[in-house]
Amino acid sequence: MTSSGSTPKSARFASRQPVANTPCLPPAADAIGPDVQALRRFRVIFNAVRSHFQQVEKRTGTGAAQLRALSILRERPGIRLSELAQAMDVHQSTTSNLVKTLLEREWISTTQNGSDRRVRHLHLQTAGIKILQRMGGPYIGVLPKALSTLTPHTLQRLNSDLDELIAAMHIDDTAALTPLAEQL
C-alpha cells in the first residue's frame, strides 16, 4: 500500500491473471436487434459447416462433395452420372467435374452397357472404399444431416423464411445447385 492507503497501480494489475479460453460474451439478446441475432445464427451455421469440411478433409484427405459421391456409389453401384447428380442435388456439370477427379484418382471406374455407348455407369474401386472407411460409414454433410432431423412443418417454415431473405437480398438463386464445399 502507498502512504495514502491505496494499492499501487502495478500491484492491482499484477493480481489480474488472464483467463484462458474465456469467451467474449455478446450483449444480452434483448440488447441487440433481431437482425443481428439472425446474423449471429448464420455465422454459427456457416462456421460449423466450414469446420466440418475442414475436419472431414483432414481425416480423409478429400473434400466433402467427393465423399458424398463415393458414399452414393457404394449404395448404388452402376449409377449413371445424371442419377448421381440428382442424388447429390447438384448440377450435372458439377457432377461431371467431380467424377473426372474421382476417375483420375482411380477411386471409381466407369463401364458402358447396352446399345447407347454414351451412357457411363459408375463403380466404386478399392481405393475409393478405403477413403470411405476412414469416415466409418456413409457420408452426409453436417447441414443436410441436421436438416433431415427437422419436422416437415419446421422445414416448410424455414424454407418460406429463407425464400423471403433471398428475395430481400435481390440475388440470383442459381448457386442452389452448387455444393456448399465449393462455396465456403
Sheet with most strands: strand arrangement: 1-3-2
CATH superfamily heading of one domain: Winged helix-like DNA-binding domain superfamily/Winged helix DNA-binding domain
Intertermini distance: 56 Å
Mean pLDDT over the residues: 82
CATH architecture field of one domain: Orthogonal Bundle
Instruction: Say how many strands there are.
Output: 3
Query: How much strand?
Result: 5-15%
The gyration radius over C-alpha positions equals 25 Å
What is the global morphology?
Answer: elongated
Number of continuous helical runs = 9
Helix content: 55-70%
Main sheet characteristics? 3 strands, antiparallel
Structural description of this entry:
- This protein has 184 residues and is mostly helical.
- Among the domains are: 82 residues, Arc Repressor Mutant, subunit A; 35 residues, no CATH class.
- The protein is built from 9 helices and 3 strands.
- The chain has a 3-stranded antiparallel beta sheet.
- α3 packs across α6 and α4 packs across α5.
- The longest helix has 27 residues.
- The protein is elongated and about 65 Å long.
- The N terminus is likely disordered.
